[in-house]
Design goal:
The protein has 5 helices and 16 strands. The chain has helices at about 5-20, 55-65, 80-90, 100-115, 145-155; strands at about 70-75, 95-100, 120-125, 135-140, 160-165, 175-180, 185-190, 195-200, 210-215, 220-225, 230, 235-240, 240-250, 255-260, 265-270, 280-285. Helix 2 (about 55-65) crosses helix 3. Bound molecules: S-adenosylmethionine.
Length: about 280
């Protein structure tokens, strides 16, 4: 184990010692079955196995607003408890990826025993090799450096994909939400790529409208130019592919724009003063 991983391993144990008094460890007393008995803290390819406490699993799936329409992937599935809870408590389809073959088989048996084998598939594989881009929700209980290694892949997933991590964050990609459970839970929504210049067509083309967006993960800044006048964007937000911002026009009237980004196309509506919403479209240069 690399020194950094050893540090994180100790952090994991430290977190669990704080969060988990011995009387509460009962939930981990029945760790396996007659075919395989994994050991709490046993080594894994890139990270040891420590199961997420059951109530925290539920909190992770709740913060991601998992529903029966979702496909949930747990990266490093262990005994399958996150995938199984996604199916059993939320009706979702779920896939777990687990490198340890015995553990992967145990997880699939656990899904069978829980009565959700039709919704849960455990893949024996490596999270750095298997394709999980179809997921609507990705759950992680790994290590900080593994989260950072996965970050570029996660950011390329479809905008709106929800990511939830147990205990460890994603460095400079700040979470959209966080929650205190047994340990910290972090939640991100994969942002669309919106940076650059957009030509906006407002259907009443008195003058040319250009939107300039500067982006760092889900955080935005920028301006909108209407003819010769440029206006700073007020409270621009990006949630998946939903873009929202306001600005004061040349008459000091506040206008707000809501738009959906689909690749290099933008479709939305603008409201200003007492007027109703007017549709607009845009294309990225
Ligand atoms: C901390 S445990 C989390 C288990 C489960 N996700 C949970 O929260 O209860 C991490 C799991 O990842 C597995 N693992 C480690 N490296 C892996 C890799 N490269 N690909 C797939 N699984 C891996 C370990 O065997 C272990 O079961």
């Amino acid at each position: 184990m690399k020194p950094f991983n050893r540090f994180c391993f100790l952090s994991m144990l430290y977190l669990l010692n704080i969060a988990l008094p011995s009387h509460a460890q009962n939930q981990f007393s029945n760790l396996g079955d007659e075919q395989y008995q994994p050991k709490w803290g046993q080594s894994g390819k890139d990270v040891i196995w420590i199961p997420t406490a059951s109530e925290m699993v539920t909190d992770m799936l709740k913060i991601a607003k998992v529903t029966s329409k979702d496909l949930v992937y747990d990266l490093g599935a262990g005994d399958g408890k996150i995938a199984i809870a996604a199916a059993k408590e939320f009706g979702a389809k779920a896939v777990g990826i687990e490198f340890n073959e015995d553990m992967a088989k145990l997880a699939q048996r656990n899904a069978q025993k829980a009565g959700v084998a039709d919704l849960v598939k455990i893949i024996h594989g490596d999270i750095f090799v298997e394709d999980f881009t179809k997921a609507d929700v990705v759950t992680l209980y790994l290590l900080p450096d593994l989260n950072l290694q996965l970050r570029p892949t996660l950011l390329k997933m479809k905008p709106g994909t929800r990511i939830v991590a147990h205990a460890f964050n994603m460095g400079e990609w700040e979470p959209d939400k966080e929650m205190d459970s047994r340990a910290k839970i972090y939640h991100w929504i994969v942002p669309a790529d919106v940076a650059g210049e957009w030509l906006i067509d407002k259907k009443d083309p008195a003058s040319k409208v250009t939107l300039n967006l500067v982006q760092r993960f889900q955080k935005l800044g920028g301006s909108i130019s209407v003819g010769k006048d440029s206006h700073i964007l007020i409270s621009p937000t990006l949630e998946g592919n939903q873009l929202r911002f306001g600005y004061f026009d040349k008459d000091k009237m506040y206008r707000s724009i809501n738009a959906v980004i689909e690749g290099s196309q933008l479709k939305g509506e603008e409201k200003g003063g007492v007027s109703s919403w007017n549709s607009l479209t845009g294309v990225r240069r």
